[in-house]
Give the backbone structure.
Amino acid sequence: MAKQNERDLSKAEWALMSALWARERGTATEIQKDLQDTQGWAYSTVKTMLDRLVEKGFVSFRRVGNVYEYFPSVHRKSAIARALDDMIDRVLDGAITPFFSRLLERRQLKASEVEELKSILNQHGQDASDSDSNETPRET
């Protein structure tokens, strides 16, 4: 099995994975029908992509009668986290401020989302303060 690497997922593969995560498991025919309206892909395209995602380690399968049933090998949350971590490290040299700045410029946040972000930042600030105060000073 190929080494799992989320950065290798193309935009089309993310669309297929999203359909599979939503469905949890399904045949190529079922997934193709799920994606018909948004992607317009033929069965052969979906089957080829599923086979590639199996090789990459994102999808597993089992034989059920005379068809293959596919299911995600990677949780959606994990794939998103790894893709974001990779983007922040590779594109932004580890800086998250430009990420948040761009996000806030391009997306209209709901009041509830702003409050949730404030809570996350406050908790992170508290955690950082706690760890700073627990450090013992080094003698020079």
